Each structure stands twice: as C-alpha cells, then as structure tokens.
C-alpha cells in the first residue's frame, strides 16, 4: 500500500493537469515527488525553499489572485512555524486554500521535536472557518483532497504514515460513521486510530464511531450515539494532542448528564525518540493502552 503522502503527490499531480486554477506551493518537502509536475507546470508548482512563512504567504497571494493553492510541508512547519501567516494571510484576508501536512505527530521520531506536531489541530482550532480532515487511509486522503481542491474554503488535510488496514467511505461533509453499536458508552476514533480502537474495544458493549473530519465537529452524531447508550459517556481517541476535541464533545452534550475523556498524544516531550510504534505505546495509544484507559473510564 502506498502512503498518504505518496497518494497526495500522485493525486495533486493529476489534478494539476485537470484544474487550471490549481497551484502547488512547496518548501522543499516532497519537491522530488513533484518534479515531473513541476516540469509540466512550471508556473503552478512553486518551491520557495525552507521559508515557511513565505510558503503560506505565497499560497494566500495566489488565492487572492483567483487561484486554488495547495500548500504543503511537514505539519510543524505548515501550522506551527508560520501560524501568523495562516491566521492573517488566509483567515484575516478571507481567502481559501488547502494546507496539506505530512509527518503527523511523530512519524519521523529521528527528526526530533522540531519535526513533531501533536498540537497542530488544537492550534488551528483557535481560528474560525477551517475544515480539518484527518484521513486514516490513502484512499480516504485522495477523496478528501479532491473534495478540498474542488471547493473554495479553508481546509487542512493532515497526512500521516499511520494508517488503517482498509479504507472507509468518507466525504468532505464529514459526519461520524457507526462501525459498531453498543449500550455502555461511545468511543470516537479519528483517522488512523480506528484499527487500534477496534482492537482495544473487541468484545465490549460499546458504540464505535469513525470520522476523518474533526472540524466541523459532528455534534449531532455524538448526540445520536449517546441516545442509544445507557449513559452519555464519550471517549475521543485522536492521533494528536489529547483532549483537542473534548470541549466540542462537551458542548454537543451540554444539556445531558455526560462525561468525556480525550485520549491522544500527551504534553510531555519524549526525548528518547525511538520509533513511531514506541511513541504510540508511550502515549497509551496502542490497543493495550487504549483498552486499559477506556475500560477504566467507563468502569467496564
């Protein structure tokens, strides 16, 4: 299976042939993959080098000129480093574009903390009007990317090396998809966390919802799931900062007695970088760690 980043490069390259408004703006990352597209469309595949503030500003400038920019680099350099440009050049100026990140929270541990971005979605959550997609499979990434390019809004597509074994039906309109139904609580699995959540909840009387779109948050979907359980207890398992969507779930259930547990990447910096699998275990996001915390919270 190809990776989400591989699929992004191949899909965006094809879209450049099909969509004359589309432009791809790079900061060295994935430049080799886009080399054939750059030769075919030298005026619409722009590599600004390792200048991330310029990367975002150039993309927003293209949007002001009527183009549909796809702006790409690692998450830490796409959201965190040039956050002021994301906030002002896209948000304040009221233009649309597609930010596509790679690297996830810790896809390349050897790169160190500079290349880790567990706080990217929480940071974007401070801004208005962003749609946030977190695909769990390359097929889902392609569908969400195509929808994002065809639209006009501000969209963040978060890619990762973490992936589920199989793709699920997804759409740009989002919504939480029931994968299992149970009576003792609800677990929401975001993107690449689904396989681990399914393994962790095997044999438990729980509803499992799957989503690749976390913003806007599907409040109605959480309420529907709470309505078929005996308690409005919700666990949200996200592949980035723990608790990022806990407030949104709480707001969805504000008029119901409820409890919400947000599971994800912890705040503490893990300085022995290790492997991606070791990071999952260290943050309790492997099936064993998830099962222990889910059953403890739901008193199963």
Automatic annotation (TrEMBL):
Q: Can you tell which superkingdom this protein's organism belongs to? A: Bacteria
> What name does this protein carry?
Transketolase
Q: Which SUPFAM superfamilies match?
A: Thiamin diphosphate-binding fold (THDP-binding), TK C-terminal domain-like
The Transketolase-like pyrimidine-binding domain covers which part of the protein? 2-166
Q: Which organism is it from?
A: Streptomyces violaceoruber
Matching CDD domains:
TPP_PYR_DXS_TK_like (cd07033)
* Pfam family name, one: Transket_pyr
Any single GO molecular-function term of the entry would be: magnesium ion binding
Query: Taxonomically, what lineage is the organism?
Result: Bacteria, Bacillati, Actinomycetota, Actinomycetes, Kitasatosporales
């Amino acid at each position: 299976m190809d990776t989400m980043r591989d699929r992004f490069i191949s899909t965006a390259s094809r879209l450049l042939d099909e969509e004359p408004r589309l432009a791809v703006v790079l900061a060295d990352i994935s430049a080799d993959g886009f080399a054939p597209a750059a030769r075919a469309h030298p005026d619409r595949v722009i590599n600004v080098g390792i200048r991330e503030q310029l990367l975002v500003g150039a993309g927003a400038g293209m949007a002001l000129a009527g183009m549909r920019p796809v702006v790409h680099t690692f998450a830490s350099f796409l959201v965190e480093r040039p956050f002021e440009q994301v906030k002002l050049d896209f948000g304040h100026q009221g233009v649309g574009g597609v930010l596509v990140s790679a690297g996830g929270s810790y896809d390349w541990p050897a790169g160190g903390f500079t290349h880790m971005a567990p706080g990217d979605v929480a940071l974007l959550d401070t801004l208005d009007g962003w749609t946030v997609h977190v695909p769990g499979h390359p097929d889902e990434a392609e569908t969400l990317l195509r929808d994002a390019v065809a639209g006009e809004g501000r969209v963040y597509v978060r890619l990762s090396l973490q992936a589920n074994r199989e793709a699920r039906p997804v759409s740009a309109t989002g919504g939480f998809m029931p994968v299992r139904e149970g009576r003792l609580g609800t677990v929401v699995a975001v993107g690449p966390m689904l396989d681990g959540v399914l393994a962790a909840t095997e044999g438990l009387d729980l509803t499992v919802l799957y989503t690749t779109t976390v913003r806007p948050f599907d409040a109605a979907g959480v309420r529907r799931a709470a309505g078929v359980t005996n308690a409005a207890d919700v666990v949200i398992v996200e592949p980035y900062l723990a608790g990022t969507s806990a407030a949104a779930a709480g707001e969805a259930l504000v008029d119901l007695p409820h409890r919400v547990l947000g599971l994800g990447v912890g705040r503490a910096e893990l300085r022995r970088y290790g492997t991606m699998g070791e990071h999952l275990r260290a943050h309790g996001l492997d099936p064993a760690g998830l099962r222990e915390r889910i059953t403890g919270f739901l008193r199963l």
